[in-house]
């Protein structure tokens, strides 16, 4: 699966950490095979936790696919975008009633820019592999129970406070709207241009202590919380790196195939 | 869980709750609040854990690397503390890793991290800062 993305506007230049070819961990790149194997190990633990990750095949091929998870989260959503979806009438009780029903808000809808309410929002996360940049990329979309897509502003409002300021300051994690490379539908995407920047320290540190890294686990643990995706701590204990050798790789594939209902390779 | 020896307490600086940069006098502070009985020492042990902060790459090394931290303190709070200590720009992001290569959730309590990844009576956390956008 090589989903080509609109990348002409990116400044991202993949940088190789070193010429060391002992393991893929030496490079900040991720080759597609390691992507699949790493996802497989990740999915094994997900299956154990039953926390909703699954492997989606592309074109009916086991070897091509992406990881996907859907989760309901309480979010703050504004009543304003909902109102703007139809020609909104300020005057008239009928209009207000209609908006109340559609928005499913507890508080009365009054001012145009009024209240935010708590609502369950459906977040759908996709972990795709980018052939162009040889790194994983996180796509996601969010919608209310009524099926209304969240606006970029609403998505930003639900970013963890730890990251909100940085997101505003610099585009290391900019959230942009992109067409999903495989589904062709509008998604949000977490800009991957700084992937190398936070992967390099983890890869360096692990290498210094002679430990392997599950690229997907490390990567997702960093980018996930930015967009409300939690990676439970048990993953860090349970999920290891894919074995570098071919024989061990085969064993891992076998284990992956038998462990859960969905898994790559 | 490894027992925390009272003789080590002096080598770990107390991390202030309000995330201010520590003063030198905070180091080697004995627990003056509690009477020096073994029971009180154990109670004090359980409330706090020892953290060793290691810089990665070009990230500035903290002058004080060893900290005693309340168990209930979150990764987010710790991150803010380190950022202020290192005087990071608002645009600079701090990354924290446990077990070398896992970024704990910002809401995660350090006490929980210690239970899972602590060894030799301390929790080792690696940290690294991103480049500021110029």
TrEMBL record, chain A:
The keyword Transferase applies. It holds the Pfam family Autophagy_act_C. One of its GO terms (molecular function) is Atg12 conjugating enzyme activity. InterPro entries: Atg3/Atg10. This is Ubiquitin-like-conjugating enzyme ATG10. GO terms for biological process: autophagosome assembly; autophagy of mitochondrion; protein modification by small protein conjugation. The gene is atg10. Residues 244-265 are annotated as: Disordered. GO terms for cellular component: cytosol. Belongs to the ATG10 family. The lineage of its organism: Eukaryota, Metazoa, Chordata, Craniata, Vertebrata. The keyword Transferase applies.
From TrEMBL, chain B:
The keyword Membrane applies. It comes from the Eukaryota. One of its GO terms (cellular component) is phagophore assembly site membrane. GO terms for molecular function: Atg8-family ligase activity. Pfam families: APG12. Signal peptide: none annotated. Residues 1-10 have a biased composition (Polar residues). It is found in: Cytoplasm; Preautophagosomal structure membrane. InterPro entries: Atg12, Ubiquitin-like_domsf. GO terms for biological process: autophagosome assembly; autophagosome maturation; autophagy of mitochondrion; glycophagy; piecemeal microautophagy of the nucleus. It is a peripheral membrane protein. Keywords: Acetylation, Autophagy, Cytoplasm, Isopeptide bond, Membrane, Ubl conjugation pathway. The keyword Ion transport does not apply. Residues 1-45 are annotated as: Disordered. Forms a conjugate with ATG5. Belongs to the ATG12 family. This is Ubiquitin-like protein ATG12. The lineage of its organism: Eukaryota, Metazoa, Chordata, Craniata, Vertebrata.
């Amino acid at each position: 699966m090589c989903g080509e993305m609109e990348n002409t506007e990116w400044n991202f230049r993949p940088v190789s950490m070193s010429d060391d070819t002992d393991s893929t961990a030496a490079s900040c790149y991720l080759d597609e095979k390691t992507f699949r194997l790493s996802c497989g190990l990740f999915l094994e633990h997900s299956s154990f936790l039953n926390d909703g990750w699954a492997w989606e095949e592309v074109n009916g091929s086991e070897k091509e696919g992406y990881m996907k998870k859907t989760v309901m989260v309480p979010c703050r959503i504004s009543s304003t975008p909902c109102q703007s979806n139809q020609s909104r009438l300020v005057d008239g009780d009928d209009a207000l009633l209609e908006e109340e029903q559609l928005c499913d808000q507890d508080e009365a809808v009054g001012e145009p820019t009024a209240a935010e309410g708590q609502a369950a929002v459906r977040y759908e996360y996709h972990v795709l592999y980018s052939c162009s940049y040889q790194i994983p990329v996180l796509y996601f979309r969010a919608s209310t129970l009524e099926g209304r897509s969240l606006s970029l502003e609403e998505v930003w409002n639900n970013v963890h406070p730890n990251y909100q300021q940085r997101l505003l300051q610099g585009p290391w994690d900019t959230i942009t709207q992109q067409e999903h490379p495989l589904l062709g539908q509008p998604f949000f995407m977490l800009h991957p241009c700084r992937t190398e920047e936070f992967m390099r320290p983890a890869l360096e540190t692990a290498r210094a202590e002679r430990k392997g890294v599950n690229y997907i686990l490390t990567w997702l643990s960093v980018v996930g919380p930015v967009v409300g995706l939690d990676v439970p701590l048990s993953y860090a204990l349970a999920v290891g790196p894919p074995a570098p050798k071919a024989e061990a790789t085969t064993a891992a594939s076998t284990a992956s195939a038998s462990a859960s209902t969905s898994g790559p390779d | 869980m490894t027992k925390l020896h009272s003789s080590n307490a002096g080598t770990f600086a107390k991390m202030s709750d309000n995330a201010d940069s520590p003063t030198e006098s905070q180091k080697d502070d004995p627990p003056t609040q509690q009477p020096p009985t073994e029971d009180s020492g154990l109670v004090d042990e359980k409330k706090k854990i020892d953290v060793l902060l290691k810089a990665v790459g070009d990230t500035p090394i903290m002058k004080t690397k060893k900290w005693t931290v309340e168990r209930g303190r979150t990764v987010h709070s710790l991150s803010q503390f380190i950022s202020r200590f290192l005087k990071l720009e608002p645009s600079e992001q701090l990354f924290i890793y446990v077990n070398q290569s896992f970024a704990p959730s910002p809401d995660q309590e350090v006490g929980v991290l210690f239970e899972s990844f602590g060894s030799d009576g301390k929790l080792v956390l690696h940290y690294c800062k991103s480049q500021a956008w110029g």
